[in-house]
């Protein structure tokens, strides 16, 4: 069966290349930059040059490769931003996420990504429809890409470009190119420069010295004769120029690390501007999670401080969510409770991916508040009472009396079978914190009378002692406990500390 001029079992490779990667990395984080007269510089030194610029800067005469001081002389209102390598790396990760949302096998290659395009007609009307879907997926991530599909990886790469964004911004048809067979690939490659084939610079220089400038000129040569003069690589270049390429992709799975990181150009000491910049990072990272059909319930936020070092915190949500507003409100509550100790010069947000939360409720479960609201309420309470003082009480792994630890509160566990069984217990111990001091009459190994704050009288029944001791290697403890019943039917837990000789009432049974 024929498919777009190629058989289904032939190698079909799609390539998506980011157009003007330096500019797209900035515009993905700052959409408002598109409306400014702005240029991206290679560094902040005296010999810095322009890497990319906006459309208004290009209309003012700014060009790629210009020295920054020359560009400012041409356009006095020009704003200059130094390229952020973290934003560039994040844009590449977003490109790979968009590719993995459409193809099971990809090969990352810096600002390009190759996809296995065999059998795409099963989900798309045609290969051009698949290329358009890939272009739209990248656009949702804030990236403008050139997409090409051909019979080999090298041909697909040559049909894409990383050219200036300003010359391609409104050329939507030029963003998709499909070479249906070798002759079609040869025709599409013909007008391009030989450098577009991705050959070694030394070979490109030799071919240009021979007067060959375009791919069409190279395709006319005899590969056998050219290989005698320039080697086998030159013969392969001729076959590539003719579209005779079947190179497959090398499958590589990128690291599943959802991280957004940015370096600030100025120091930030207030929480509001810091939240404004973190909002961009969160929106970019959550868009990547949505693209991969994932969610998250934990984010680690790290701030780089002015004096060196970092300040880290972990934000958790009651249930997996991809809503940026929820994460931002939780971050605001965290900053209000514990602001960074110094001015911030950079930020990093790392999400722990997980499966999205199932929206279907149980048949007999009562409706309750959304887990996101639980998390926000707990964060506000923690900001008031202090960090580490909010959670669900749980028994620690120790026999030390009076010990208690807190676990993260999970609203879904409120109606678990274990909690229902606990609700049927008729007698529970109401623990006094701190324990109440007591005076005890102890005769013949039993407590006969007791006086404490709020309770006094003769003991009519006594059970015990229950002895506990341990931690002799660090902070030793030794305690005997009794359960006693007073004349008024009050049930108390009484304890004797063998190290201090003090009697206390630990709690009351209810």
CATH class of the largest domain: Alpha Beta
| Assembly state of the chains shown | single chain
| Helix/strand/pairing category | alpha+beta
> How many individual β-strands?
22
How much of the polypeptide forms β-strand, as a percent range? 25-35%
Give the full name of the CATH homologous superfamily of the largest domain.
Answer: Reverse transcriptase/Diguanylate cyclase domain
Task: Tell me the span between the first and last alpha carbons.
Answer: 79 Å
Task: Describe the structure concisely.
The protein has 510 residues and is of the alpha+beta class. It contains 15 helices and 22 strands.
Pick out its properties.
510 residues, alpha+beta, Alpha-Beta Plaits, Dna Ligase, domain 1, 4 domains, five-stranded mixed sheet, 15 helices, 22 strands, 30% helix, 30% strand, elongated, disordered N terminus
Descriptive notes:
The protein is of the alpha+beta class. It folds into four domains: 2-31 and 86-189, Reverse transcriptase/Diguanylate cyclase domain (Alpha-Beta Plaits, 2-Layer Sandwich), CATH 3.30.70; 194-241, no CATH class; 258-354, DNA polymerase, Y-family, little finger domain (Dna Ligase, domain 1), CATH 3.30.1490.100; 429-509, no CATH class. Helices cover 30% and strands 30% of the residues. The chain has 15 helices and 22 strands. The chain has helices at 21-29, 55-59, 68-74, 85-100, 127-140, 153-158, 182-189, 201-209, 215-219, 223-230, 232-241, 271-291, 324-337, 371-385, 417-423, and strands at residues 2-3, 6-7, 13-18, 38-41, 50-53, 79-82, 106-109, 112-116, 145-150, 176-178, 258-268, 295-305, 310-321, 344-354, 392-394, 405-407, 429-443, 446-452, 455-470, 477-486, 491-497, 503-509. β21 and β22 (503-509) form a beta hairpin. α1 (21-29) packs across α4 (85-100) and α13 packs parallel to α14 (371-385).
């Amino acid at each position: 069966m024929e498919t777009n001029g190629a058989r289904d079992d032939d190698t079909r490779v799609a390539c998506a290349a980011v157009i003007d990667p330096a500019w797209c990395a900035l515009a993905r984080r700052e959409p408002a930059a598109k409306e400014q007269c702005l240029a991206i510089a290679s560094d902040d030194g005296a010999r810095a040059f322009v890497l990319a610029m906006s459309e208004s800067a290009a209309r003012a005469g700014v060009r790629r490769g210009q020295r920054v001081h020359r560009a400012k002389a041409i356009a006095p209102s020009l704003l200059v931003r130094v390229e952020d390598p973290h934003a560039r790396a994040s844009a590449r990760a977003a490109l790979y996420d968009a590719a993995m949302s459409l193809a099971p096998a990809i090969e990352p290659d810096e600002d390009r990504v190759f996809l296995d395009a065999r059998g795409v007609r099963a989900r798309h009307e045609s290969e051009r429809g698949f290329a358009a879907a890939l272009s739209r997926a990248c656009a949702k991530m804030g990236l403008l890409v050139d997409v090409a599909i051909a019979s080999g990886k090298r041909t697909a790469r040559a049909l894409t470009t990383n050219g200036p964004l300003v010359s391609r911004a409104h050329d939507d048809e030029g963003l998709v190119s499909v070479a249906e067979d070798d002759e079609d690939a040869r025709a599409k490659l013909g007008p391009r420069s030989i450098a577009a084939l991705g050959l070694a610079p030394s070979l490109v220089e030799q071919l240009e010295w021979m007067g060959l400038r375009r791919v069409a000129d190279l395709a006319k040569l005899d590969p056998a004769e050219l290989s005698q003069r320039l080697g086998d690589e030159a013969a392969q270049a001729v076959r590539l120029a003719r579209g005779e390429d079947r190179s497959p992709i090398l499958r590589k799975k990128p690291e599943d690390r959802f991280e957004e990181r940015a370096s600030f150009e100025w120091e930030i000491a207030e929480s509001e501007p810091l939240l404004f910049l973190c909002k961009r990072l969160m929106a970019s990272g959550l868009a990547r999670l949505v693209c991969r059909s994932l969610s998250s319930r934990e984010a680690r936020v790290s701030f780089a401080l002015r004096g060196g070092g970092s300040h880290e915190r972990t934000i958790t949500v009651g249930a997996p969510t991809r809503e940026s507003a929820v994460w931002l409100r939780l971050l605001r509550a965290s900053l209000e409770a514990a602001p960074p100790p110094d001015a911030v010069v950079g930020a990093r947000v790392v999400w722990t991916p997980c499966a999205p939360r199932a929206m279907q409720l149980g048949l007999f479960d009562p409706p309750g508040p959304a887990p996101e609201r639980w998390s926000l309420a707990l964060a506000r309470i923690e900001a008031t009472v202090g960090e580490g003082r909010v959670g669900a009480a749980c028994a620690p792994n120790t026999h030390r009396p009076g010990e208690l630890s807190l676990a993260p509160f999970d609203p879904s566990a409120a109606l678990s079978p274990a909690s229902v069984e606990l609700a049927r217990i008729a007698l529970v111990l109401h623990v006094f914190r701190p324990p109440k001091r007591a005076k005890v009459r102890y005769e013949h190994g039993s407590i006969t009378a007791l006086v404490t704050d709020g309770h006094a009288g003769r003991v009519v029944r006594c059970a015990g002692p229950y002895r506990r001791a341990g931690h002799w290697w660090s902070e030793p403890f030794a305690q005997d406990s009794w359960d006693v019943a007073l004349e008024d039917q009050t049930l108390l837990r009484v304890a004797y500390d063998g190290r201090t000789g003090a009697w206390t009432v630990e709690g009351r049974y209810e």
